[in-house]
Amino acid sequence: MIVERSDPLLGRCRYVADLGGQQVAHPVLVARRGDRFDATIENRLPQPTTIHFHGLTLSEAQDGAGFEAIAPGASKALRFEVKNRAGLYWFHPHPHGFTAEQVHAGLVGLLVVTDAEDAALDAALALAPGNRVALALADARVAGGLLRPYAPSAEDCLHGWFGNRALVNGALDAQVPVSNGWVRLQLLNASNARGLLLEFREHARDGGTSVPFHLLGTDGGLLAAPVPVVRVFLYSAERVDIAIDVSGRREITAVSAAFDPRHQARDGRVAHHPARDQYPPLAVDTICAPGSGRDAAYFLPDGAELALFTLSVGGAAGAAPPPLPARISTLPEAAAAADAAPRRMRLDFDERTGFLIDQTPYRLDEIAFSVARGAREIWEVRNSPISMPHPMHLHGFGFRVLRRQGTFGPARRLASQSSGRLPTDLGVKDTVVVWPNETLWLALDFALPKDAAFRGRQRYMFHCHNLEHEDGMMMRNYAVL
Ligand SMILES: [Cu+2]
Fold first, then answer.
1. Residue 469: is it exposed, middle or buried by C-beta count within 10 angstroms (0-12/13-18/19+)?
2. Residue from 35, 218, 19 nearest 113 by CA
3. Can you tell me the distance from the alpha carbon of 134 to that of 124, in angstroms, rounded to the nearest whole number?
4. What confidence tier does 231 reach under pLDDT thresholds 50, 70, 90?
5. How many whole angstroms from 359 Cα to the centroid of ligand 1?
6. 264 Cα–ligand 1 center, Å
7. What average pLDDT score do residues 40-55 get?
8. Inter-residue contact 305 to 255 (CB < 8 Å)
């Protein structure tokens, strides 16, 4: 696979898969659980890069977390077995200090993993051809139909980079043709920083009425049972798998509904990654220039309503679609190890240093803590009261959400359980949003998947997936021994 810059002026980039001489740009990869991935990554960017397989359980050497970046002009062999459950995974660059710029440039790829449960669900839904779709949703600054290059101001680097238009698999004004019946959508929020409150509307131009849908799965695959919902939060790097019945409808628009984005920290600066000074930006522009404000003409604030894409329903309305199965996977209920004292983590904000985990900016050579291979732990992750939402991502292992406390009202009203958990907390997660003043308890099992124990010390990361925060050092390393 080639990582290339296709437009130096705008800084746009793309992955190109070379399949026996045939070149495919923006590939969407599909694998069955147990398949082997075998590729050589060639870096044609003027910056270092890596490919992180987001959500997969891999060894440190294959995880692509930036311990060993691929220098400009260099290559790296990637060989591993796909051991994870069926689900929507994705791959993107993770070179420290350059992640936000490279992801925004277009370096986002989808990896759809299937297995027997996944295939049984498709059969039960009687999906018409074309009614299963995987989409990467992102935002960009667009003027006159042209994307503007990534040039965040100091304010953008504090809050995150927000655009004014949605890109769906890299395209503006995306129309997805589907047929009557169930439609299964696997959706990734590939935005650098924007949180989405996903909702579907019919007759959207006249205000619209909400079309309810069913949550089937989260980051790490299917839930035990579908959950009926009207809207779900989807923060940067999170995924949802949903079923929506489009029978008898003509056009359904997916939108991010308006919500309070909880950006309470207003002034401050974020730490600057030293690697940034060694390589040029992808486009001819500056990054995080001190004292600079926002480019208001091409900017829609986080939490503002944003149209995402349209489902155009074709074909004759047939018989009513089959009922959803009551059980769709064998996923057990989230359970904590009875004797485990929680490992506590604090998400901090300071006007001089920006956002940090436990008051510590990222250092490549630091290991914040080690866990024993096979251990089961509870992590208590608390966000400070004056803060921002932080979508926290764990490399190497999925986790389960046990409980939320201190959740702000509009989100708490979506909770379906006394534990404060949202429907999207009920599956396997690798990224979870922690709102200001909120505490989450997560159950981690460092034995899973059972057959994926890699020999020797393996370093992974826990970090914020607001990519401007990530590049601003809101990351820690941990080791599995
Ligand atoms: Cu953050």
1. buried
2. 35
3. 19
4. very high
5. 14
6. 12
7. 97
8. yes
Measured in angstroms, how far is the CA atom of residue 20 from the centroid of ligand 1? 41
Place of tokens 């979506």: 414
C-alpha of residue 154 to centroid of ligand 1, in Å:
15
93: helix, strand or coil: coil
Distance 467 CA to ligand 1 centre (A): 8
Tokens in use for 202? 């019919």
Q: How far is CA 387 from CA 166, 266, 349, 357, 394, in A?
A: 26, 9, 6, 12, 20
Tell which wins on pLDDT, 471 or 453: 471
The SS3 of residue 245 is strand
Residue 68 C-alpha to ligand 1 middle, in angstroms? Answer: 24
| Average pLDDT score over residue span 173-200 | 97
In 3D space, the residue among 372, 368, 363, 396 whose CA is nearest the CA of residue 62 turns out to be 396
d(CA 174, CA 72): 33
Cα distances from 68 to residues 49, 128, 236, 362, 467, in angstroms, run: 9, 44, 24, 16, 19
CB 229 within 8 A of CB 215: yes
Ligand 1 centre and the CA of 465: distance in Å?
6
DSSP 271-325: ---GGGGGS--SSSS-SSBTT----GGG---TTS-EEEEEEEEES---SPPPPPP
Helices H, strands E: what count in the chain? 6, 33
Q: How far is the CA of 279 from the centre of ligand 1 (A)?
A: 24
Cβ-proximal residues to 27 (8 Å cutoff; 6+ apart), any chain = 1, 15, 16, 17, 109
Tokens representing 34 are 């147990």
What is the CA(261)–ligand 1 centre distance, in A?
Answer: 12
CA–centroid distance, 348 to ligand 1, in Å, is: 10
Say what the pTM is.
0.96
Question: Six-digit token pair at 43?
Answer: 């870096």
pLDDT band at 291 (very low <50, low <70, confident <90, very high): low
**347 Cα: distance to centroid of ligand 1 (angstroms):** 9
Ligand 1 mean position to 159 CA, how many Å?
Answer: 8
What's the CA-to-centroid distance between 357 and ligand 1, angstroms?
10
